[in-house]
Amino acid sequence: MLASVRETISVATHGVAGTPVGDAPLREACASLERMVSGVLLDLDGVLYNGQDPIEGAAEAVSLVRQSGIPSLFVTNTTSRPRSALREKLARFGILAEEDEFLTPPVAAAAWIRGQGEGRAALFVPDATRQEFSGLEANPDAEDLRYVVIGDLGAEWDYATLNRAFRILHGEPGRELIALGLTRYWQSSEGANLDVAPFAAALECATGLKATVMGKPAKEFFLQAANLLGLPPAELLMIGDDLQADALGARRAGLRSALVRTGKFRPSDLDFPERPDWVLDSVRDLPDLLAHGRD
Ligand SMILES: [Mg+2]
């Protein structure tokens, strides 16, 4: 069933390429393109698992998407674990993936810094994610220090640490603050916990700088995902449980989005004036959406 979806997509693409502008068939083909999903971005927590528990049917859904030939990428705002740890976690739930199938804020930030051509970074990130910044880390007194990268340090954040980041940025024109996502808080079994956004806000307040955000819902992050898959943003579907970070972030970047009713989803999410393109009971329904629900 999914194979036939791919056939339809390739015919539609071919039709556009081979049809002169202004013809009715072109308009028809463009309409097909508008409905088309050529790639899928999958959030992890709340979509494929809840904490340590797999979401029923998630492994089968990922497997069906892959069998259909539709390329996919795991896109998460997790900054406390490297891709190797995410890979191991998914494997425990029966989903096998290579490290280059994950896009995380540290990976996106490191790629962005490398793309700037020069300058290294002072890292305020958990030890586990330092490996993603291989060759880019600099001491506070390094001459080529240009960036301050802040991630979810959790209980390691204290006045001295935050002040160290502030001093690197303060009064040094040209230095930039990079935030690994702008998640405000995350939920643990003990309650809500401060994430990256409040610390980015503190540094923005003190320095007058505006942080460059690497992670959902930043447009740049979704565009980087599209770039990695080699597909136009408009042909991508983002599946997530977070209305703002996943569904609306993706839509604002020009992607389609499907919100799942698992993880952090709350029914009140649907009262928000902006809506996702689709709402699914769970990622289990993704293969059906790709096969039937694209119109
Ligand atoms: Mg999530």
Summarize the helix and strand pattern as letters.
HHEEEHEHEHEEHEEEHEHEHEEH
> What small ligands are held by the chains?
magnesium ion
**Treating each run of at least 4 consecutive H or I residues as one helix, how many helices?**
10
The fold-level CATH name of the largest domain is: Rossmann fold
Low-confidence stretches: 1-34
Q: Total strand count, please?
A: 14
The coarse overall form would be globular
Number of domains: 2
Radius of gyration: 20 Å
- The CATH architecture of the largest domain can be named as 3-Layer(aba) Sandwich
The helix/strand class is alpha/beta
Task: Please state the average pLDDT score.
Answer: 87
Distance between the termini: 16 Å
**Can you tell me the CATH superfamily of the largest domain?**
HAD superfamily/HAD-like
β-strand amount: 15-25%
Helix proportion range? 25-40%
Largest sheet: 6 strands, parallel
Describe the strand arrangement of the main beta sheet, using strand numbers: 5-4-1-12-13-14
**What's the CATH C level of the largest domain?**
Alpha Beta
Walk me through this protein's architecture.
It is a single chain. The protein has 295 residues and is an alpha/beta fold. The chain has two domains: 37-75 and 217-292, HAD superfamily/HAD-like (Rossmann fold), CATH 3.40.50; 105-213, Rossmann fold. It is 37% helix and 18% strand. It contains ten helices and 14 strands. It has helices at 2-17, 24-35, 58-67, 83-92, 105-116, 159-169, 197-207, 219-229, 243-252, 286-292, and strands at 39-42, 49-50, 53-54, 72-75, 102-103, 120-124, 145-150, 176-179, 185-188, 191-194, 212-213, 236-240, 256-260, 278-280. It has a six-stranded parallel β-sheet. The protein has a four-stranded parallel β-sheet with strand order 6-7-8-11, sandwiched between helices. Strands 2-3 form a two-stranded antiparallel sheet. Strand 9 and strand 10 form a beta hairpin. Helix 1 crosses helix 2 (24-35). The longest helix is centred in the first third of the chain and has 16 residues, at 2-17. The protein is globular and about 55 Å long. The site of magnesium ion has 8 residues, from loops.
